[in-house]
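Throughout our pipeline, every protein is held as a single compact record rather than as scattered files. Such a record has a labelled line for the sequence and another for the backbone structure tokens. This encoding replaces a full spatial description with a residue-level series of whole-number codes. For reference, a complete record is included directly beneath this paragraph.
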Amino acid sequence: MVDVGELNGVFHVQKPTKLLLTLNIEGTEARNSYELWVYPKKALEKKGVIIAKDLNEEVVKVLEHGGKVLWMPTASSHFVAADDTLSQADNATPYTVGGLFQTDYWNYRMFKTICENNKKKVSPGTLGILTNSEHPIFKGFPTEMHTNWQWFPVIKESHPLVLDNFAKDYRPVVQVIDNIERNHKLGLVMEWKVGAGKLLVCMSDLEKAAKYPEGKAFYQSVIDYMRSADFNPSTEIMVDELKKKLAEKPRQVSLKELNNISQY
């Protein structure tokens, strides 16, 4: 390792910004590039949005009176985490899978079998996120349509919601791609118009994710979006219907054992 100097004055930004740092050795073709995300030091501003851990009667009244609610179920003391819906506790709703930043390895069923036979924790088995990078929720959180490093704290604190029981044409703001063996429709961020109010559901505990600059930036970007005129969900759902959908068990996927029969 060689110390070639310091970067000064580059990272004083007024808004969250993605930069590309390129280093090269003069007179050669040796070159490398690094993606960097830079966030200004600002305190979280949460005014104008009700932040809830539970969808209780008080929160329902806020929605009935036209309020805006950010609901984070995974932050609730009643939330029971599970790695997949096959092992979900009977009293645990909503139904989720585990949060996984890195894409799972190439054969979920085989490695699930190996882990279970060795009494090891099974990977959540998901394959990253899919989203619209131009969605206004990302005005304060530069992103591509796929997972990148700035998503790490948000996904690490998440348990994506199983959306199998919702309308087939419903698409979450941020979708999580499931493996082909299980193939659940999964959501990290969803939004609905509920009565006169507007509800945004985030399946990450953003209070925990906000310990990191990128997590705090995402949290602020979500709140800023909800306070703006852009927050106008196109899909309507009644509270009773939403609660019913969340309480219903999704389709159960029976995965047979798949053992590694190679000699290696």
